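Input chain follows. Return structure tokens only.
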Amino acid sequence: MKIRIEWRRTPPARNNSFIRWSRYLFFALGVLVLSYVGFVLLDARLFQAVQSRQFQQELNGLKPSIGSDEHLHPSSLPPDVEEADCVRADTLGTVGRGESSLGRIDISTIGLTAMILEGTDARTLRRAVGHIPGTPLPGQQGNVAITGHRDTFFRPLHNIRKDDEITLTTLNGSYRYRVDSTEVVEPEDTEVLADSDDAVLTLVTCYPFYFVGPAPKRFIVRAHMIH
């Protein structure tokens, strides 16, 4: 007794149709992803340009105070900063949340310049680098902590070296820091944010810099204030 096995093949037309529509789908997804990336980068660039221009205009109106050694104090802040929008107002002075810039960070040796906002939420770090709430403000005693994304504003940090100079410019003064060291730590290692008796600066970003997906480590830059 012979058993005949019949192989059923999907009609070529159906295969071709499936492949064709799959190509359209992947193409559309690719366009959407690229469009989103382009929007994010353009939004960040425009935001930085606007904030930088406004900040420079404010600096030009406060030239006598630039370069001073005075620390931030509530009495020296703009009158439109509301108490509800402040971070540690009792000890750190006041700083408005949202779209108002805290200052600017410059590291000329690696070509890094970015406006600083208060906070570390996704929207803030998409448009600028963020001052970590609960840490001192630029120019004050203690450990000033600033964070940024490794694939945008803080990407140049992979080139930073010991003794490089970092400048934080605010409406209350321009403060210079010199890099002491860099290190890679675990995300749970919050000791890097511990307060200090000295005026120091800590920069935080993800590591490795070119890792695809959520990076498993944190890259830390430590610096001390110089006069």
